[in-house]
From TrEMBL:
This is Peptidase M28 domain-containing protein. It comes from the Bacteria. It comes from Bradyrhizobium yuanmingense.
């Protein structure tokens, strides 16, 4: 099909539905409602929908305690920008301890034993090219602020803080506005830390840092609970090919998310399923809406959440005796993202009027050429990124790790992990992106597998070297000592 477009009323209806659900944190009621919503749409197309029920320990704030997140110093209530997910809990009564300010990229946690540590975290511009390479080196990524990276690096110290006897941790943001910092669900990739932690920003960050320098007392409440019977569902469905059914193309997104960009990829999965059911392709197309992207440690020990589906269902992709063989994958995340930025001179945060720079991966040179031919979204030639020895952002990474050639859209605006609502989506851009994925899918279906290319796998030594380089860059960019 040369022309494919999504009805804009359909897009708006889906976005309004996401807005009505609010954040869809892994295993929450709203998360499950979205999964059921997509399942019903696929079933209405006549697709047989399969479910994988995933069990995990679900951490969440106690809904019955309206004062369950609170910080008070010298009688002053301090605005908490966000709570560190899966950090820990103080219980409903909280903890009242002395504040200790710790400095440096690797804090000496023992100095805050028995108290509350205060650590500065800086949202500096990060040299994105250090993590994401491009196929065309003349179009390398520049510097960009990305709250996820410094928050994750800072969070790596919580285990050491707990072992050192620290009661709780307050991370004080620098280089980010209070509006940008508010509601950031960061970081989301670490295991349960068993030590409560929160973020503060703006004037409140200044106040907390000064109070810690003076050794003031603080009362912190993080009344979180752990549900040992938490569940979430990955759903998936196959549309059989009409001439090469033993070969498969995986079309993937995830269902858990924080706002109407993270994650709205289900819109693409539903529309492509509608297309393929109406006009079956030569190859079998498998649509996977995976759960656990915001709780990766609960579903897999490596990679991202789709790793679990790949582990549980090798018969659909691995190519062993009697198994189907995945020749390619399309990964659809963060559709229609508008760009938002902080303006330090005006102390404001909001849309720039531009689309967020598209982070679009291809794992082979042949798929890069295909993107350059079929990706028509912003009026400019697409910048195509390449997986590297350390990481491919988003749910395309599990496919890359298994050697499945893939194209993945995983744009990373600053608000990506914020649970705060906003006017984040450009409907026309979303339409063009889904239409581009439709063209890619149909072109891939006509390509012999040897023309799709082979993923170049990396060695453990290359991965280790890349990790050390990234840690060095983050250590120099993210934490600030003054």
């Amino acid at each position: 099909m040369e022309f494919f477009a999504v009805d804009h009323d359909t897009i708006r209806a889906e976005l309004m539905y996401l807005e009505s659900l609010g954040s869809r944190i892994s295993g929450s009621k709203s998360h499950d409602q979205l999964v059921e919503h997509v399942k019903q749409q696929w079933a209405d197309f006549g697709m047989r929908v399969h479910e994988d029920v995933l069990h995990f320990d679900r951490w969440s704030m106690a809904a019955e305690n309206p004062d369950g997140l609170r910080l008070k110093i010298d009688g002053r209530d301090i605005a908490i920008s966000s709570v560190f997910p899966y950090s820990g809990t103080t219980g409903p009564l909280g903890t009242e301890k002395q504040l200790y300010r710790l400095r440096g990229p690797i804090p000496r946690w023992s100095k805050a034993r028995g108290g509350i540590a205060v650590v500065e975290v800086r949202n500096r511009e990060f040299p994105f090219d250090a993590a994401v390479k491009t196929w065309d080196r003349a179009r390398a990524w520049g510097k960009t602020p990305m709250p996820l990276l410094p928050a994750t690096f800072a969070g790596l110290g919580l285990a050491r803080a707990r072992r050192a006897g620290v009661e709780a941790v307050i991370f004080a943001w620098r280089g980010i506005s209070t509006c940008n910092a508010k509601g950031q669900y960061l970081p989301f990739t670490l295991p349960y830390q068993n030590i409560p932690a929160v973020f503060v920003a703006g004037d409140d960050a200044d106040f907390v840092l000064d109070a810690a320098s003076l050794g003031r007392q603080a009362m912190l409440i993080v009344d979180a609970v752990i549900d040992r019977d938490g569940t979430m569902r990955t759903i998936w469905a196959a549309v059989e090919g009409n001439s090469a059914a033993h070969e498969t193309v995986l079309v993937v997104s995830h269902s858990d998310g924080t706002n109407i960009v993270e994650e709205n990829g289900h819109i693409g999965l539903v529309e492509l399923a509608r297309l393929v059911v109406a006009q079956p392709l030569a190859r079998t197309v498998i649509f996977v809406l995976t759960a656990g992207h915001l709780r990766i440690p609960a579903v897999t020990d490596y990679g991202q959440a789709t790793s679990r589906w790949l582990r549980d269902h090798p018969q659909w992709w691995a190519g062993g005796p009697g198994d189907r063989h995945a020749v390619a994958g399309l990964v659809i995340e963060h559709l229609g993202a508008r760009e938002y930025r902080d303006n330090p001179l005006k102390n404001t945060y909001g849309p720039t009027g531009n689309p967020a720079p598209e982070l679009l991966y291809a794992s082979t040179a042949q798929l890069t050429a295909l993107i350059e031919s079929e990706w028509r979204t912003t009026g400019q030639a697409p910048r195509v990124s390449a997986p590297n020895a350390l990481i491919q952002f988003g749910e395309g990474q599990p496919l890359y790790l298994k050697g499945i050639p893939n194209i993945a859209l995983v744009t990373v605006p600053q608000y990506l992990l914020s649970i705060e609502p906003g006017d984040y989506v450009d409907v026309a851009l979303l339409d063009r992106q889904v239409s581009s994925f439709a063209r890619l899918l149909q072109r891939i279906d006509t390509m012999p597998s040897n023309e799709i290319g082979t993923v170049k796998m990396t060695t453990p030594l290359a991965k280790a070297a890349a990790a050390l380089r990234a840690i060095g860059i983050l250590a120099g960019s993210s934490l600030h000592c003054r």
